[in-house]
Amino acid sequence: MSGSPELFENRLRAAAQQLPYPPTPDIAGAVRQRLAASGMGTPHPAGARRRWQTAFALTALLLLLLAAGSLAVPSVRAAVAEFIQLGVMRIFLPEPTPTPVPASSSTPGPTLTPATTATPPDLISLEELSGESTLQEATLHASFTLHLPAYPLELGKPDRVFMQDMNGDMLILVWTAPDDLRRAALVLYQIAAGSWAGEKGRLSRVEFTSVNGREAVWAEGPYALLLTNRDLDIRRLIAGRVLIWEQGGITYRLESSLSLSEAIQIAESLEPYP
Higher pLDDT residue, 264 or 42? Predict the structure, then answer.
């Protein structure tokens, strides 16, 4: 359209004045009449105001409680957060998945064998891990009380023990493959509060579950380890999945090729040692 913007605006204003438009109804007056008829109008303005204020406060409180309750559900909280914190573990979240339901506790005992899938490039041998110790030394020198699984009964004590310092003790208990002491079949990490061990790496396939009624994560991925050459690298010992939870100020990581239900049974059987 030719002409200046001012001319175009004037033409629009003139055209608008010629358009028929119904009168605006007295909405405020109608509302006052209904309030007066119901006893909430002008005869008792202070009481009506208090009732409206009370109703508003109750509604706000209800919405707040609903929001808090929703955020208490891990899958809902995951949708509004980039990560969750479990003890010293900071877990960055991919797309949330439904909470899995553990199988019955009557499930037969697990068979501790390494995963048979293709070997991931970040998998290392126990011989590459620094800080080998003994269970007795770890019991004496760790800054917290050790816990060992009581399930399955035939599991027994760990075959190898490693202690690493990452601004806080990290204890690595390893049950090895029956035919090879260099390969891990089950690994239980116990990490002291304040350690930065859990801030390295990025987990994947994150699912939410619970251990002893406390929030837990079932995931996959490498983590920070000290190697014998004194390098710090993002590696893992088992080509499986890891169950992560926090209890009593200690962060636990249980890594294996077991199912989730079996991992939870082991986690919930932990007892102080000795």
Answer: 264
Taking a C-beta distance cutoff of 8 angstroms, is the pair 147, 271 a contact? yes
Give the integer Cα–Cα distance in Å for 68 and 45.
35
Nearest to 125, CA basis, from 187, 203, 77, 70: 187
Q: Report pTM.
A: 0.63
For residue 175, give the nearest of 254, 261, 267 by alpha carbon.
Answer: 254
For the cut 90, the answer to whether the pLDDT of residue 147 exceeds it is: yes
Q: Is the per-residue pLDDT at 91 higher than 70?
A: no
The reported pLDDT for the residue numbered 158 is: 98
Contacts of 202 (CB under 8 A, 6+ apart): 92, 221
